[in-house]
Design goal:
This protein is an alpha/beta fold. It is built from seven helices and ten strands.
């Protein structure tokens, strides 16, 4: 039986840790994977009463304001054109929270939104993740038994949180350092160059190889 999406206007703050703002393909894929892996997850939606992103995942759905208020970690999975307005509206509410920027401003001077987060939510912690692979690979990260790498940047103290979320998707976390969003976006540019420009297709991902010292 199909389960109706749940709404959560009164979610207890201690039971919701991750808010996914955006319920499209990327946001829905991320939030459902987090919830199915056991991470308390709430979707922030403009229409929580009718939004079906949380269906059959264990996640809940609330308004954007409610979702942000009740989460310690907030994932921005909305179109890049909507990021500034959201940050301007909810910047104060993001104080003290980890903001994970998964939105790509493709065609802009930079793809990430680090400067906008710093401007509108200066008391938030910024991370860049979930943006370097096509959404198809977030939904299905297995390549013949090998998990794809997910490159990310974040404050070192937030690594356990983000790596748990990356692992929930079945991806392998690959940390590139703090304030390295431009490095992460270099991987994004490489993905576009190979998958789109060179025609390899969207089902393309990366895996870092390391030779042990004993074998060199």
């Amino acid at each position: 039986m199909t389960r109706s999406p749940s709404t959560a206007p009164l979610i207890r703050e201690d039971t919701v840790t991750t808010a996914v703002i955006g319920t499209g393909f990327i946001g829905g894929t991320l939030g459902r994977a987090f919830a199915r892996a056991g991470h308390p997850t709430v979707f922030g939606s403009r229409t929580p009463e009718t939004d079906t992103a949380a269906r059959d995942s264990g996640a809940t759905t609330a308004t954007v304001a409610e979702a942000i208020a009740q989460a310690d970690t907030v994932v921005l999975a909305i179109p890049a054109t909507a990021v500034e307005e959201l940050l301007a509206t909810y910047g104060d509410a993001l104080a003290g929270k980890l903001v994970i920027d998964a939105a790509n401003n493709v065609g802009g001077p930079v793809a990430h939104h680090a400067e906008l987060v710093a401007r509108y939510a200066p008391k938030a912690r910024y991370a860049r993740a979930f943006n370097t692979l096509g959404g198809e690979n977030l939904a299905d990260p297995d390549f013949d038994g090998t998990a794809a790498d997910l490159f990310y940047s974040a404050p070192r103290s937030d690594r356990p949180t983000i790596e748990a979320l990356i692992g929930a998707l079945g991806l392998r976390p690959m940390y590139v350092g703090e304030n390295q969003q431009d490095t992460v976006d270099g991987v994004l540019r490489l993905w576009f160059a190979l998958a789109i420009t060179q025609g390899h297709g969207r089902h393309l991902a990366f895996r870092t190889l390391t030779r042990s010292a004993e074998s060199s």
